[in-house]
Design goal:
heterotrimer; A alpha+beta; B mainly alpha; C alpha/beta; A: alpha+beta; Ubiquitin-like (UB roll); Fumarate Reductase Iron-sulfur Protein, Chain B, domain 2; 2 domains; 9 helices; 14% strand; B: mainly alpha; 3 helical TM bundles of succinate and fumarate reductases; 4 helices; 0% strand; elongated
Chain lengths: 236, 115, 590
């Protein structure tokens, strides 16, 4: 598999009237590179190829993309995990407008994140030291706070594809629950009241694509279930 | 909070709960009917209409049909808001669905309590 | 050039990492018209990669802990060229800044009593080095940077900070008085170039580890702020001081936190020997990073390295057990599986010293104000220019930073800069507007690339620069090799000045950004090289075969690199803390 065939989505709004797939041959010298390494090798062939990247170790969430049909982070996805028959197909994250090549407009995704008020709210005066929190209460945040906002989950979610303006999406809801679950946050009632409409949370149909693709191994579906339980407990 | 006026209860939580409760009712009804059919292998028209002549069966059936109507509305309303983006078309389709569900419900009442 | 659209702010913060966001938060709360300009969405900044924690004497693990002990460790760790007034400020203000982060929602790990979890890190002591190992690094598992950066971004959202995300700052704009009055910036999405006018310009652009071929740093760490300041003619301080982190994953360069050793892990050579016991009998694997990195290289040079080529050592963690690994170091387990194909619960991780942190940078005072020197060597404030975070050299890290002190530096001095700018704005600031020619000067470089018609391309030149730095300015340095390096860099500079940008499109042109970044890498590399060549001693992270000893007579000084003349001058280290006695230089052992 020394010569890898890569097919990649190309679109430059200044020169292309429509997007197209471009073929690249990349000499991997038989190494099991990360997909991001392959992208860099392609960029040496064609300097105009645009994609986002930053930390190259799976913590900044810049290089979420669709690799052979599955969303993931290019920097921590080895070729051996994705290639089928020596062929790699790269497309931008589905469901968001493409700016150029692999770069999508994340505006709607960020808007949904902002909508859930992703910050701790506590109207009691803060103590002179930290607010105390038991290790058990802190444990409740594990599996929630680690989200890197890469958008792999939300852009693999059909409910988010259909209603990206109304459904908060798995990433936003995971963060919503991160604050609902925090023993230091006391805006629970107000947070829940913002979520009980038919779209924000309840568009989740339990498809669980989000769980299947999350590069950090997080489980938004479970968090959404917990939000629903809280809404139910609150309203009945 | 996303506002909306065409959903069943204007609350996602109520809609969601309604769908779950109605599903349970329909499931019980379906299980009952299947069991009835299994335990009455030589079923004829008189036995069947005898069953539906009993008040409790009529009420149970009505409950199942109301559940079906509510369930269908919540589900189809969701489908229309997912897939039909032009507002006029969506409202038109939703109106059609409501009328159809209403008609079916009235018809089912007529069957249950009619001649 | 007056056809440039202009954006006007009270303060512009260039860089959306920890220090930039902390400064922005302070200013947003004050109601000043502030914007954060970042070349990536803020949570993609390199702060996100910090793992082990934020070192601060909050007296959680040890109720008797004292910020003065932390200050002592910091000054000693920096091999005595940390400014003691700055270290004093950081260590004493630190607890306040850390508690604020907690109040903002940072999900710190906890002790059973509900207080913030603290772990031991390298170079930490109690009672001024007399009381044994301290545990002073506040942690959110091994994702503290991620937790910190997201918390700061979230609180900026809460306070309605204006963000110019995916904008790239090209160069500073100076008026005819030499005051900094904003910058030229480009919207990456559209390619639009604007003039940002501002009374305070804060460079919070982070480090530049990408000048080395092997680095733990993100691909975006190209020293943009350092490049901008150097091109504007401002001096850089202590640029020879680059920290090589002992534990970068062999081959990949990704960081493995010092917290691994804090939790009880240790380094072994090919014989399975815990070799740090020989080099640092007391602190062992938790000696200063420079000491550990050098010891590792010595082991490798003396033939006790691991692997086929004998070019790395192992970090042993399996004895900690899956529970501790899962609870305290979950990210490390992930990273080593991904990048080293090793499960640390079973096998040791192959590691090698890897470029990690720039101790040097834009000289500033504790308020973040950039400093230059007048002709007689006295400090002089640069009007309008501020720096904080890794881009700045306050200097609290001196010649070697202690683990966990970078996150503290970010929040303490980001906050300090924000507070100072707020009060300066309240008092009123008036600078001359930039003239046409001032703006044109700042546009020169951008125009050069846009008009380039042929020549070498960016990726190859960048790779060459990184090789030069790796080979000539690594863990151990030596005159002749460095001279060659300086020569090669001079040569490379003229080639970069004639390099070619083939893609001149406007929409999200990452090739243009990378070209502009290459200029900055060049500036940083050259400043580093010349400063390293001129500092004729070994101190902290700067260690020379030909001058193996510390020379306090001649070099108990900051170095100041001047770009116009490419000269290295000296600047006095501050030995006058306000509330504690001076820590006099001593022989540094662990």
């Amino acid at each position: 598999m020394s010569n890898l065939q890569v097919s990649i989505y190309r679109y430059n709004p200044e020169t292309d009237s429509a997007p197209y797939m471009q073929e690249f041959q990349v000499d991997t010298k038989g190494r099991d590179l990360m997909v991001l390494d392959v992208l860099h090798m392609m960029k040496e062939q064609d300097n105009g190829l645009a994609f986002r990247r930053s930390c190259r170790e799976g913590v900044c969430g810049s290089d979420g993309m669709n690799m052979n049909g599955k969303n993931g982070l290019a920097c921590i996805t080895p070729l051996s995990d994705v290639i089928k028959g020596n062929k790699l197909t790269l497309r931008p994250l589905p469901g968001l407008p493409v700016i150029r090549d692999m770069v999508v407009d994340m505006g709607l995704f960020y808007k949904q994140y902002e909508r859930i008020q992703p910050y701790l709210q506590n109207d009691e005066p803060a103590p002179a030291i930290e607010r105390l929190q038991s290790p058990e209460d802190r444990d409740k945040l594990d599996g929630l706070y680690e989200c890197i906002l890469c958008a792999c989950c939300s852009t693999s979610c059909p409910s988010f594809w259909w209603n990206p303006d109304k459904f908060v999406g798995p990433a936003g809801l995971l963060q919503s629950y991160r604050f609902l679950a925090d023993s230091r946050d006391n805006a629970t009632e107000q947070r829940l009241s913002e979520l009980e409409d038919p779209f924000s949370v309840f568009r989740c149909r339990g498809i669980m694509n989000c769980v299947a693709v999350c590069p950090k191994g997080l489980n938004p579906t479970r968090a959404i279930g917990k939000i629903r339980d809280m809404l139910l407990a609150d309203a009945t | 909070m996303v506002t909306n006026i065409t959903s069943f209860s204007r609350s996602g939580l109520s809609d969601w709960l309604m769908q779950r409760v109605s599903a349970v009712v329909m499931a019980l009804y379906a299980v009952f009917l299947v069991a009835y059919l299994l335990f009455n292998p030589g079923l004829d028209y008189y036995a069947w209409s005898g069953l539906f002549a009993q008040t409790w069966m009529r009420i149970f059936s009505l409950l199942a049909f109301i559940s079906l109507s509510a369930h269908a509305w919540v589900g189809l309303w969701t489908v229309t808001t997912d897939y039909i983006k032009p507002t006029n078309v969506r409202i038109g389709v939703q109106l059609f669905i409501i009328l159809a569900i209403f008609a079916f419900l009235v018809w089912s009442i007529q069957i249950l309590w009619g001649a | 050039m007056s056809n440039l659209r202009s954006l006007t702010y009270d303060a512009i913060i260039i860089g959306g990492g920890g220090s930039g966001l902390r400064a922005a938060l302070e200013l947003a709360k004050s109601g000043k018209k502030t914007a954060v300009l970042s070349k990536v969405f803020p949570t993609r900044s390199h702060t996100v990669s910090a793992q082990g924690g934020i070192t601060c004497a909050i007296a959680s693990s040890d109720p008797d802990d004292d910020w003065r002990w932390h200050m002592y460790d910091t000054v000693k760790g920096g091999d005595y060229i940390a400014d003691q007034d700055a270290a004093e400020y950081m260590c004493s203000e630190g607890p306040k800044a850390v508690f604020e982060l907690e109040h903002m929602g940072l999900p710190f790990s906890r002790f059973d009593n509900g207080r913030i979890y603290q772990r031991p890190f390298g170079g930490q002591s109690k009672n001024f080095g007399e009381g044994g190992q301290a545990a002073r690094t506040c942690a959110a598992a091994d994702r503290t940077g991620h937790a910190l950066l997201h918390t700061l971004y979230q609180n900026n959202l809460k306070n309605n900070t204006t963000f110019l995300n995916e904008w790239y700052a090209v160069d500073l704009v100076k008026n005819s008085d030499g005051d900094v009055v904003g910058c030229i910036a480009m919207c990456i999405e559209t390619g639009e170039v604007v003039q940002v006018k501002s009374k305070a310009t804060v460079l919070a652009t982070g480090g530049a580890g990408r000048i080395y071929a092997s680095t733990t740093n993100a691909l975006i760490n190209t020293g943009d702020g350092i490049g901008m300041a150097l091109r504007a003619g401002f001096p850089m301080q202590d640029m020879e001081m680059w920290q090589f982190h002992p534990t970068g994953i062999y081959g990949a360069g990704t960081l493995v936190t010092e917290g691994c050793r804090g939790e009880g892990g240790y380094l072994i050579n090919k014989d399975g020997e815990r070799f740090m016991e020989r080099y640092a009998p007391n602190a062992k694997d938790l000696a200063g990073r420079d000491v550990v990195a050098r010891s590792m290289v010595m082991e490798i040079i003396e033939g006790r390295g691991c692997g086929e080529k004998g070019d790395h050592v192992f970090l042993k963690l399996d004895h900690l057990g899956e529970d501790v690994l899962g609870k305290r170091l979950p990210g490390i387990v992930e990273l080593s599986k991904t990048f080293a194909h090793v499960d640390p619960a079973k096998d040791p991780i192959p590691v090698v010293p890897t470029c990690h942190y720039m101790m040097g940078g834009i000289p500033t005072n504790v308020h973040g104000q950039a400093i230059m020197q007048d002709e007689s060597g006295n400090d002089q404030i640069v009007n309008g220019l501020y720096a904080c975070g890794e881009a700045a050299c306050v200097s609290v890290h001196g010649a070697n930073r202690l683990g966990g002190n970078s996150l503290l530096d970010l929040v303490v001095f980001g906050r300090a800069a924000g507070m100072f700018i707020e009060s300066a704005l309240n008092e009123g600031i008036e600078y001359l507007d930039a003239s046409e020619s001032d703006i044109e000067f700042a546009m020169k470089r951008m125009s050069r690339w846009n008009e380039s018609e042929g020549g070498e391309t960016v990726p190859a030149l960048k790779a060459e620069l990184q090789e030069i730095m790796q080979n000539s300015f690594g863990v151990f340095r030596e005159e002749k090799n460095m001279q060659e390096g300086v020569q090669k860099l001079a040569d490379l500079r003229s080639r970069i000045d004639n390099a070619y940008l083939p893609d001149k499109s406007n929409a999200f042109n990452t090739a243009r950004v990378e070209a502009l970044e290459l200029d900055n890498l060049m500036e940083v590399a050259e400043a580093t090289a010349i400063a390293a060549l001129e500092r004729k001693e070994s101190r902290g992270a700067h260690s020379r075969y030909d001058f193996p000893d510390r020379d306090d007579v001649n070099w108990l000084k900051h170095s100041m690199y001047y770009p116009a003349t490419k000269e290295l001058k000296k600047r006095d280290v501050n030995f006058k803390p306000k509330t504690v006695d001076t820590f006099e230089p001593k022989v540094r052992t662990y």
